[in-house]
Design goal:
By secondary structure, this protein is mostly beta strands. The chain is about 5% helix and about 35% strand.
Length: about 425
């Protein structure tokens, strides 16, 4: 389920691939705990939702100048913000050679190595059969990859059609999403998926009980369908059971579940078509978490709305908000990532700040104490990309010569990638990456 840093290659065009997730929460509004949705009686736990976005200025010129990776046409290197994605219980990494690596839970085949096993992998393994990948995204129990030719592959759980291959059959290896071409960005939500096309329209598929596909209905779809009424979209983010889109004019649209105010329109009424988020303009990035949402403004400040039981809105309270509120004390932010019950922000000095739930150490400050205000993640160098997962977090430290992937928080399924299944309250280094 947010995560970018400005790069000299992209100059004013910022692209972001983040994931944002959801972890098991209480209350009836916690959709990932609904047994029927996942099919086999497994409690769905966290949603990872990533988004890719473009700077809103001169969007027509910038889209035409970009390949699906968000890099300048002809460029082969992978922007740091496209290299990592934290799901509910698994993680993904993209290397410069176009290969994808995965680790963590593999119950539904979300690691993409041809196996489905209850035994997780605590170290990265290569996803089978993928080449020329330019972006990745980890959802709750499925994964996505965007190829350089503008097509999309997906693998893992497919109980609700979230792989988009016209079936509801799980796949432990990547399958082609049906009917998609000219895709510029992807986002995997809890049990649904999204794609932004280069013409500025949006497709969605998978679970649709709360209208998160945005087509005016509540019927799930195993094939991509058009989100109603959206044009000139520059970024997307699939949340737990809601979805977000950033338009070229800097405003934000939202649809799907709204029981906790995650659509940000001042109500708690679900919507199966996009509605405008109240009071937002000059937005440059969006991120949808389990039941909360984030927006990064051009002035470097951050807004948040939705569920706030753990302080994930970062406004020094634990009261839900159905309209955007300002995250306390943040300035000069360059990237955001909404996790399940926690949030991350990357500052232009390379530091990372976190807030919300911390029972598994996902805030990375050496404690398990929740925080309703941003606190600095410990022991990180100059970070270039972030991704908040179910109950864990990822950060990429990239220099001109090498990259280091850091991870912290829950690790019961090996999602930190450091060869253990021990939780970590501070960042640890993932093995055999980059």
């Amino acid at each position: 389920m947010a995560i970018e840093r400005v790069t000299t290659r992209l100059t004013t065009t910022r692209m972001e691939l983040a994931n944002i997730n959801r972890k098991d929460e209480r209350l009836r509004g916690c959709p990932w705990k609904r047994w029927g949705a996942i099919g086999a009686g497994i409690v769905s736990a966290a949603a990872a939702f990533s988004y890719i976005f473009y700077n809103a200025e001169d969007i027509s010129k910038k889209i035409s100048a970009l390949s699906p990776s968000g890099s300048i046409k002809g460029s082969k290197s992978t922007p740091p913000e496209n290299k990592i994605s934290a799901g509910a219980y698994h993680s993904l990494s993209l290397k410069d050679d176009g290969s994808v690596w995965a680790w963590g839970s593999n119950y539904f085949g979300q690691l993409g190595n041809g196996k489905t096993t209850s035994s997780p992998s605590a170290t990265p393994i290569m996803v089978s059969g993928l080449r020329e990948v330019v972006a990745i995204n980890a959802g709750d129990f499925h994964s996505m990859a965007l190829l350089r030719d503008g097509t999309v592959r997906a693998w893992g759980s497919n109980h609700n059609g979230e792989l988009g291959d016209l079936t509801i059959t799980n796949s432990p290896t990547p399958v082609m999403v049906s009917g998609l071409r000219e895709v510029a960005a992807i986002s995997a939500g809890g049990l649904h998926s999204m794609a932004l096309l280069r013409d500025g329209t949006v497709r969605a598929w998978g679970f649709n009980y709360w209208g998160q596909l945005g087509n005016g209905a509540t019927t799930s779809s195993p094939t991509p369908i058009t989100v109603y009424g959206l044009r000139q979209v520059t970024a997307i983010s699939a949340g737990g059971d809601h979805s977000l889109a950033l338009l070229h004019d800097g405003t934000v649209r939202a649809w799907g579940s709204n029981i906790l105010g995650q659509l940000g329109n001042g109500t708690t009424t679900d919507s199966s078509t996009p509605v405008m988020v109240s009071g937002l303009g000059e937005v440059m990035a969006i991120s949808a978490g389990c039941d909360h949402s984030l927006a990064l403004l051009h002035d470097g400040t951050v807004k948040a709305w939705g569920y706030n039981f753990w302080g994930q809105l970062g406004n020094d309270s634990t009261t839900n908000s159905s309209i955007p509120v300002t995250v306390y004390g943040l300035r000069q932010v360059t990237a955001i990532s909404a996790g399940c019950s926690s949030s991350l922000a990357l500052i232009d000095d390379g530091t990372v700040w976190a807030w919300g739930k911390n029972i598994n150490g996902q805030l990375g400050n050496g404690t398990t104490t929740d925080s309703s205000k941003p606190i600095m993640v410990s022991d990180l160098g100059w970070v270039t990309a972030i991704s908040a997962g179910g109950s864990f977090s990822l950060a990429l430290n990239t220099t001109w010569s090498f990259s280091i992937l850091w991870a912290w928080g829950k690790n019961a399924d090996g999602q930190l990638g450091n060869g253990t299944t021990t939780n970590s309250l501070t960042p640890v280094m993932a093995k055999r990456l980059f």
